[in-house]
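Two quick folds needed for the group meeting slides. Do the first one here.
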Amino acid sequence: VVIGDSAGGHMMLMLLQALKSAGQQQPALGIGLCPWTDIGDRGASLHANDRYDLVQGWMALRFGQWLDVGGRYGREALSPIEHDFTGLAPLYLQIGGRDILHDMTCEFAEKQARAGADIMLDVWPAMHHDFQSLDSTHPDSTAALVRIASAVRWSQGEDAGFGPEPTTL
């Protein structure tokens, strides 16, 4: 199982593409916590949710510029939303409704589901970026961590009950 948070979620998604390109085996599951799925300006939440988040929309755009200094690779090559995840490892993603990355993550999940990728996205409407780090201090964070553990057990054949919840898109 490969798991990544925010830019680490971006790295997890791009790792799956790199493994595919190299003809290597996929992991049992890819988990993205508030994953960054587009290095460009995508979705209203990127700026509209600034008031809820420590990470601001302008920061995400700057990170994208730093990732592709001089435009050497281009937005499409470096944005997971532009890639096809059909046939790759199953994906389990979590996002907060007040996360600056909310819209792009939902769009990514919808696009991949339409293409036939094995993907599940859980949304916690009242939560911000990286809300899972609140651990046991917030009930939504606790619930998210329980779902992550269930997803890992499911990927190992140990939790047949893992599946969509009321918050799942």
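Then this one, please, same format:
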Amino acid sequence: ARFLKIAEEGATFRSYVDGKTIALTPERSIEMQRANNSDIMMVLDQCVASTCSHEVAYEAMMRTYRWAARSLAARGDSPQALFGIVQGACFQDLRRTSAEQITSLPFDGYALGGLAVGEEKHEREDTTEFAAALLPRDKPRYLMGVGTPIDLLEAVARGVDMFDCILPTSLGTQGVGYTAR
């Protein structure tokens, strides 16, 4: 993270594998996902801590919108699904604006980003419920980065259809599994 630089062009960071500098633009991100033949591609977005200031969240939300439009243009004629990402930390006004912006573009589904990155559980649940209600019901609604069984159930109850998270896989590699107890 200390090597991460975010600019209008994209994100620049160092590889944790070999230390090489990597420049990731919205266009390059889509190019890579197309090459991987991803079933669902995600736009490049700027995720900030959910506890950041309104100003920081606003700037990231606006950049995410501009990057989403660039990602959509880079998609070309690919039949792969492409999801837009709603940002805005835990600020309802920003989530509303972001949802309006992102749903104005012809994405195949919509993701809620910028959650599970520092906020309290009740803040994540409240924000999820608020933001999911702003998304079209006829398209998939996807919550990024949430993976415990109870968090999945809470998100479904709040209108979310899809999830991903590194937690179950990470815990599984350590011999940990979820049970009823």
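Slide caption for protein two: The chain has six helices and eight strands.
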